[in-house]
Amino acid sequence: MERKQFLQNLGAGAAFALVFPCLNGCSKDGAVGGLPVPTGIDFTVDLDSQEGAPLQNNGGFILKQFVVVAKNLEGQYVAASQVCSHQQTEEVRFVENDGGIYYCSAHGARFDQTGKPLNSITSNPLKIFQTELTGNLLRVFE
Ligand code: FES
């Protein structure tokens, strides 16, 4: 069986996992640049679970699938790429400064909640994701 046929038999998902095992980064210290901005995002977070606990409080955030999911200071759920639009490190976090912004500790880029750059570190907007709350399930998607 040839490699192509083997991969076809596995199915697209399994083939992808075999061919690109480190696509989301295999760094030990989590500080390697050049990571791809997350695409195809569509996941849910149970706000009653341990994973979702930080999202109970305004200003809290979690990291999942290279997405920063936050509850902003007004109590709304927002989400953005954890991979920075400057040099693609995974250092973007939600911080409570300036009414709640995204901040990348690698070089200090700051972005508002629409992804608009707030300083001169980069002019590239940060990718933003949609959120939808149904009961205690928060969906994050493109
Ligand atoms: S990689 Fe985020 S500020 Fe440079």
UniProtKB/TrEMBL annotation:
It comes from the Bacteria. The keyword Metal-binding applies. SUPFAM superfamilies: ISP domain. It holds the Pfam family Rieske. One of its GO terms (molecular function) is 2 iron, 2 sulfur cluster binding. This is Rieske 2Fe-2S domain-containing protein. Keywords: 2Fe-2S, Iron, Iron-sulfur, Metal-binding. It comes from Flagellimonas sediminis. Residues 47-140 form the Rieske domain.
